[in-house]
Design brief:
two-stranded antiparallel sheet; 5 helices; 3% strand
Length: 123
Amino acid sequence: VLLAGRAVEDKLLDGDYTSGASNDLMKVNEILYEYITQSGMSELNENLFISKNYGDVKAKWIQDEVKNLREKLYSETKGIVESNYKEIKDLAEYLLEKNDIDYDEINEKYKVKYPEKTHNLIK
């Protein structure tokens, strides 16, 4: 989800990015660092845990692993955006016109049933 905004920009603007997704990218990096160093999800060092106070948290191998995972996830996200681009563009145009859409409108518009209603309004 956090990479989707940049992936849509990539599709729409052909790599001429805006700063709109910068906060999302910062969050992605923070999550991936924690995923690798705090949750034991490193592919290179299984079950690793590095304390946030430990100086090695910014080691090159960790940065490389974060980068590789981020690039993999970004590539997958771009594929999802590409395969759903018509719906994304349609939804964006709808939101520009109406300003918001609720859960029932999304279900009606796209004939998709989501497992549970998490938000009543999307802006």
